[in-house]
Amino acid sequence: AEPGGSGENAGADDGVITLGFSQVGAESGWRAANTKSIQDTLTEDNGFELKFSDAQQKQENQIQAIRSYITQGVDVIAFSPVVETGWDAVLQEAKSAGIPVILTDRAVDSSDDTLYESFIGSDFVKEGEMAGEWVVEQYDGEGYQAVELQGTTGAAPAIDRKEGFASAIEGSDVEIIDSQTGNFTRAEGKTVMEGFLNKHDDIDLVFAHNDDMGLGAIEAIEAAGMKPGEDIKIVTIDAVKDGMQALVDGKINYIVECNPLLGPDLAEVAQKVVAGEEVEKRIVVKDEAFDQAAAEEALPTREY
Ligand code: GYE
Q1: How far, CA to CA in Å, does 111 sit from each of 30, 49, 84, 116?
Q2: Is 254 helix (H, G, I), strand (E, B) or coil?
Q3: Which residues line ligand 1 (CB under 6 A)?
Q4: How many CB atoms lie within 10 A of CB 100?
Q5: Element (H, E) at 255
Q6: Does residue 5 register a pLDDT over 50?
Q7: pTM for this one?
Q8: Which residue's CA is the nearest one to ligand 1's atom 8?
Q9: DSSP 280
Q10: Of all atoms in ligand 1, which is nearest to the CA of residue 211?
């Protein structure tokens, strides 16, 4: 595509689709798999020129990257918004420049859904519900005290997983006694869990919004002389390899999957958008869940 090409005539007039992608960061195993899927799919061989930038979990970096893609006149902009709110102005700029935007992984909270073409990603409320339903099924009646390691404050998966889990445990005797953000990273998951262990004597269960924070919690629990998965049960979301290994090892008790392999769907939607074809406004990615036995079976052939 011509740099600077914009307005109604923007498009892949040279047959190559230039796509500017703004990634959240490199905070987790899930994110690494997601980045790999995008980079492996949006290749020259597949008709793409991919411009990729890592925002290091900062919204201002993403806004800057999107503005630079607008200036460069890319054919399509795609991004995974680190937080839900605060996107209207920059998305309006893309729209005025005639550059279509595709959301992957995380949603934006905007009343104007003409600001993007499609949102491809999992149903995070449902993931939280699946985690909560399993906890109730296993432990209701035991008076369990749970702590929650939340994802990045203001991020769609943190907001939605919290909500889904809370609604699933409602009416049971599982109680969340503390809840803090660990920013989706292993290091912060560990630090927050250390704080919880210092503050509370009787923690029965950890609900972590992703595997990495759960893996950090495992380190904190072991350092405190207890057995993760036994003395303190752990339920997480993502099902990346390290998480699945910990589940097989009995240190995590249950994992709800979140599929990070969004590259192929993104490529397809981008091609359609550039060709002026209709696309679905919402593409929901399907997720499973794993207990120990299911993890043992799935791990050897796991892609991520
Ligand atoms: O669960 C977490 C990552 O947005 C679904 O972000 C994604 C989440 C994923 O950091 O590991």
Answers
A1: 29, 31, 12, 11
A2: strand
A3: 27-28, 30-31, 105-106, 157, 184, 210, 212, 237-238, 258
A4: 22
A5: strand 254-257
A6: no
A7: 0.94
A8: 157
A9: -
A10: 11
pLDDT at 14: 75
The residues, ordered by sequence, that sit 6+ positions from 83 with a Cβ below 8 Å of its Cβ are 59, 152, 153, 154, 155
How remote is the CA of residue 213 from the centroid of ligand 1, in Å? Answer: 11
Which of 184, 188, 244 is the pocket-test mutation for ligand 1 (most atoms within 8 Å of CB)? 184
What is the ipTM metric for this complex?
A: 0.99
pLDDT at 10 over 60: no
pLDDT in tens, 133-158: 999 999 999 999 999 999 999 999 99
Here the tokens at position 285 are: 């990615």
Ligand 1 mean position to 107 CA, how many Å?
Answer: 12
- Minimal CA–CA distance to 229: which of 154, 277, 295? 295
Cα 281 to ligand 1 centroid, rounded to whole Å: 21
Percentage of residues in the chain with pLDDT exceeding 90?
95
CA of 105 to the centre of ligand 1 (A): 8
Residue 34 CA, ligand 1 centroid: distance in Å: 9
Among 105, 207, 238, say which to mutate for ligand 1: greatest number of ligand atoms within 8 Å of CB: 238
Candidate from 56, 211, 236, 258 with most ligand 1 atoms within 8 A of CB, to mutate: 258
Closest CA to 106 of 92, 91, 90, 124: 124
At 104, is the pLDDT very low, low, confident or very high (cuts 50, 70, 90)? very high
CA-closest candidate to residue 106, choices 260, 303, 272 = 260
Please answer whether residues 276 and 66 qualify as being in contact, where contact means their C-beta atoms are separated by less than 8 angstroms: no
- The per-residue pLDDT for range 114-130, each reduced to its tens digit, is 999 999 999 999 999 99
Strand order in the sheet with 48-54: 48-54, 17-23, 76-79, 101-104, 118-122, 282-285
